[in-house]
Amino acid sequence: MYKVKEIYYTIQGEGYHTGKPAVFVRFSGCNLWSGREEDRHKAICKFCDTDFWGTDGERGGKYTAEQLSAIIYDLWPTDMMQHPFIVCTGGEPGLQLDQALVDFLHDANIQIAIETNGTVELANDIDWICVSPKADSKIIITYGNELKLVYPQLENDPEQYSHLDFEHYYLQPLDDESQAEHISKCVEYCMRYPQWKLSLQTHKFIGID
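Above: the chain's sequence. Below: its structure in token form.
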């Protein structure tokens, strides 16, 4: 059984696949924070703004691989020729997205992307790997399709990751009360080091999940 906070169909709002329709499967749980506000002071990632605690979100629950596949196909438009594209997120989806689930979803012709903090081993053959490193954590996933770094973070300089084996490198402005300043810093850094590209959370600008 897989513990899921929520499942919903939307438009990917950030990174390489910005604008792409996707079914988001948000797994419960994370290894960098419990998800409970009373524990935030102990969290490794203190700026996380995602609710991944429990199973009380939209279509949340505990599911088998077969049940997850059925929900994904129920949400994916039937008039589209493309196979379903899902984004496994969290929390930390790598804690639950095991080889059995990856294989089952592939057998169902479902394309799998993951957004991971990069600190846990991943199953084989995931179609798109996006690693988003967090300060004060050690990533072990040093390869993939996309590295997306929230910027600025204390003790987490982009230079730490520029030598790793990723196809795309993104800086994403930290979303807090100083976001406008952070956007300017990201733009400045990308223009100075063009290996990096700017990623904005467009879903927040246009008012979708």
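The longest strand covers residues 2-11.
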